[in-house]
Specification:
This protein folds into two domains: 6-213, Growth Hormone, Chain: A (Up-down Bundle), CATH 1.20.1250; 217-395, Growth Hormone, Chain: A, CATH 1.20.1250.20. Helices cover 77% and strands 0% of the residues. The protein has helices at 19-23, 27-49, 51-58, 62-86, 92-112, 116-143, 150-158, 160-179, 181-202, 217-221, 226-245, 247-253, 260-307, 311-326, 328-340, 344-372, 378-395. The longest helix has 48 residues, at 260-307.
Length: 411
């Protein structure tokens, strides 16, 4: 996401480090970025596991507590593009620290607040911070390594998200039930403070873009390959969220209502495997992996539609779905970062907007299908969306998802 000029590498490694050093990933810095993603996802999702406790503590209904997740998504949705566009000239590490500080403040206020309105304001701030942070992570990771390692670096930086969903949210829910929901948010504030120190000590700083090199939002959007990647994100993530958000009624329809937690655990663990596979192969096979993930998700959806009532096949299909989705953020972010080059930060903010739009639309579209047609409509709609995604990726063989590896474009 960041520009690649030599002047932007102040405080980083020399311009021509030894080849052995170039082959070694800067794991300390990349894991700090992964920790930032972990905190972001955990902050977003934790209220879903603590609805009863938060509702009692703030004296409101569980439905109103559910809106703390909605307001977080809205904050990311409305802030990502304008905030990133407005901060392109600022040095990258102070900007990253500011985004993390937003989580410190938001989670501290949430932990201490006895007012629902104040809590909602804090959650909106957390969403704004998330929109900025997600727009920074992929490009930041890519700038730390040579072009042939950028996919792997982004994969390491993205591992915090599936870890948060598969391990962080269950652990936070358990601690919240054991010690009180405020403790969970307090722990996240503490983790964010530790992360700020970690970032300051281990993550290199880079210059922002000079005014003469800043492209307008319209020009970034019209760069060859950007629109196909954004469309693929929108369609793929929409398909995922229709099924993921309404997995409980889907499982109830096939007689497995009591297995929701186990099914989600299978999904979470398999998503970790997916991100490992993608991280290993992405720098040589970005296009092939993207097509394979879309096809695998489609096959999983088909099995769920035809044989979802057979437990063994259902778990197998959910595992395949998890593998396909687990690596998808890395694939899409890497594709967009390489496509947009020096304008990657702005392009990534568009990806954040597309992703959150798909989340919101998934709730709305899935809910409408559930009420008007029933869960039987899920699989056909998923297959149509995935077919459109596949077509968009196949067509973008020159820009976006190129047939041959592309190098990071310098400024």
């Amino acid at each position: 996401m960041k520009n690649s000029t030599s002047s932007s590498r102040q405080g980083s490694s020399p311009a021509h480090p030894p080849s052995a050093d170039r082959e070694r990933l800067p794991l300390g810095a990349l894991l700090a970025l992964a920790m930032a993603g972990f905190i972001t996802i955990l902050t977003e999702a934790l209220p879903a596991g603590l609805l009863p406790q938060m509702a009692q503590g703030l004296a409101v209904s569980q439905a109103r507590i559910g809106q703390t997740v909605t307001i977080y998504a809205i904050g990311s949705l409305v802030a990502a593009i304008p905030l990133v566009a407005a901060t392109r000239g600022i040095r990258r590490r102070p900007l990253l620290l500011a985004a993390i500080a937003g989580f410190v403040l938001a989670n501290t206020v949430t932990a201490l607040s006895s007012s629902y309105v104040l809590t909602m304001a804090a959650r909106f701030l957390a969403g704004v911070s998330a929109g900025l942070l997600w727009a920074l992570l992929a490009g930041y990771a890519a700038r730390m390594v040579p072009p042939h390692q950028q996919g792997r670096a982004i994969a390491v930086a993205m591992v915090g998200a599936p870890l948060a969903l598969s391990l962080g949210v269950p652990a936070g829910t358990f601690l919240g039930a054991l010690w009180g929901w405020r403790i969970g948010f307090g722990i996240m504030s503490g983790l964010a403070l530790v992360l700020m120190v970690w970032v300051r000590l281990r993550v290199p700083d880079y210059a922002g873009q000079g005014r003469g090199r800043q492209l307008s939002l319209r020009r970034v959007f019209l760069l060859p390959g950007v629109r196909p990647v954004l469309f693929a994100v929108l369609a793929f993530v929409l398909a995922h969220n229709i099924l993921y958000i309404y997995i409980a009624p889907f499982l109830a329809s096939v007689g497995m209502a009591g297995r929701t937690e186990l099914v989600l655990l299978v999904f979470g663990l398999s998503s970790l495997f997916g991100i490992w596979v993608v991280g290993t192969l992405i720098d040589r096979h970005l296009r092939t992996l993207t097509l394979a993930c879309i096809a695998l998700f489609g096959l999983a959806a088909l099995v769920l539609g035809i044989a979802g009532g057979v437990p063994a096949l259902l778990y197998l299909a959910v595992g395949a779905w998890g593998v396909a989705f687990g690596g998808s953020p890395t694939l899409f972010q890497t594709a967009l970062a390489k496509t947009a080059g020096d304008a990657a930060d702005v392009a990534q903010s568009m990806l954040v907007t597309a992703w959150n739009t798909a989340i919101a639309a998934g709730g709305g579209v899935g809910g409408a299908l559930l009420e008007r047609v029933g869960v039987a409509a899920f699989v056909p709609v998923l297959l149509m969306l995935l077919a459109a995604t596949l077509a968009a990726v196949r067509a973008a063989r020159t820009h976006g998802f190129p047939a041959s590896p592309t190098r990071w474009r310098p400024a």
